[in-house]
Amino acid sequence: MEKTNIATLRAELRKKIRLKRGALTNEQQANAAQLLLKQIINSGVLNGVKQFAAYLANDGEVSPHALIEYAWHNSISTYLPVLHPFAKGHLAFLHYHNNSEMQLNKYKIAEPKLNCQSICPTSELELVFLPLVAFDKFANRMGMGGGFYDRTFANKRNIKLVGLAHDCQQVDELPIESWDVPLQAIITPSQTIMVSTR
Ligand SMILES: Nc1ncnc2c1ncn2[C@@H]1O[C@H](COP(=O)(O)OP(=O)(O)OP(=O)(O)O)[C@@H](O)[C@H]1O
Ligand SMILES: [Mg+2]
């Protein structure tokens, strides 16, 4: 497919799917968050894990809040992404706990206030749950279009990357680009798509 066609297709898909997930009611979102936690536990991705990074839901994304609370109750440390203070277009990961001081970043997304002691070097993360806009049955992922996750995890093959989504975000075949970071799995409230090699 021609380059411009892929870009146009991706832009149209982003718009369509963001509208779909944005139309979910608060009740549907709350149910999805609970089912997602069950699906994640059953998938086995948390087995033996002592720490992971997730995100706070924004723009209709499926919420990992039940997952984060589960981690806190089970002595698993949790981290959240923040816009990297020096490396433009990259993410840094900060410890997130009950008393984390939060602030809004330039996209109006809440993130822990930058504090050197709370930073986890990215290469030390075991498992990262990523938000996404669209996915397909091969666990291909398309995000919001900033390239933040792609840049941050390019060439970091030893970190498990697991995409989280609502079922309505699945498409038949996602047009992918060379820089899209490959995931190990995608988990929705009703299914787990595992990739065998990574
Ligand atoms: N490893 C990289 N190095 C430099 N630029 C990159 C890299 N990965 C992605 N980009 C750039 O980021 C832009 C957005 O990429 P893309 O459309 O795949 O974002 P996305 O996957 O939706 O976003 P995100 O990774 O934040 O979820 C592209 O223009 C791409 O060139
Ligand atoms: Mg991408």
TrEMBL record:
Keywords: ATP-binding, Ligase, Magnesium, Metal-binding, Nucleotide-binding. It catalyses: (6S)-5-formyl-5,6,7,8-tetrahydrofolate + ATP = (6R)-5,10-methenyltetrahydrofolate + ADP + phosphate. Substrate binds at L56, E61. One of its GO terms (biological process) is folic acid-containing compound biosynthetic process. It comes from the Bacteria. Its cofactor is Mg(2+). InterPro entries: FTHF_cligase, FTHF_cligase-like_sf, NagB/RpiA_transferase-like. Its EC number is 6.3.3.2. GO terms for molecular function: 5-formyltetrahydrofolate cyclo-ligase activity; ATP binding; metal ion binding. ATP binds at R141, M142, G143, M144, G145, G146, G147, F148, Y149. PANTHER family: 5-FORMYLTETRAHYDROFOLATE CYCLO-LIGASE, ATPASE INHIBITOR/5-FORMYLTETRAHYDROFOLATE CYCLO-LIGASE. Belongs to the 5-formyltetrahydrofolate cyclo-ligase family. This is 5-formyltetrahydrofolate cyclo-ligase. It comes from Catenovulum agarivorans DS-2.
